[in-house]
Amino acid sequence: MTSEELTLAPDAAQALRESQALCYRMNCAIVAPEHLLAACLLRLHAAGAAGLPSPGAIQQALVATQGIGEDPLDRDVIFGSAARDAISAAAAAARAAGERTITARGLAIALAESGECSPMFFASLGISRSELAGLLRAI
User: Fold this and answer.
1) Nearest of 27, 95, 33, 104 to residue 67 by alpha carbon
2) Helix, strand, coil proportions of the chain in percent (round to 5)?
3) Which tens digit of pLDDT belongs to each residue from 104-126?
4) How far is CA 125 from CA 5, 38, 47, 119, in A?
5) Of the candidates 74, 66, 109, 89, which has an alpha carbon nearest to the alpha carbon of residue 6?
6) Residue 71 and residue 81: Cα distance in Å, rounded?
7) Full-prediction pTM beyond 0.90?
8) Which sequence spans correspond to the domains of the chain?
9) Tell me, which fold does domain 8-138 have in CATH?
């Protein structure tokens, strides 16, 4: 591995898979930043991170902002450009910090700070974008 190569930590890889699973369950063909942030928050919550919104609140915020499609998907779920941009931002932040691994926490921070997630998502969670980023930085 070169000094510039990054790997995904197991929790980040799981969050990516979970964001796609959320889309399948919601009949949505494109992973939006909100799907990815929700998956990261759910992964961190499952790992015991304190102070984060509850899984129920995360699910409600996701439905409020992304909705649920009527027709079941008959194709693969893909990552939208905004979600890919947030992943790239997480990679850049990891490199800048001298890290070699992207974590679910790092992805969540990048997503919270990116401005790519709808303000309605944070309002539905009952927390501001900056407050969530602060909570994530503290864990």
Assistant:
1) 27
2) 65, 5, 30
3) 999 999 999 988 999 999 999 99
4) 34, 10, 19, 10
5) 89
6) 23
7) yes
8) 8-138
9) Double Clp-N motif (1.10.1780)
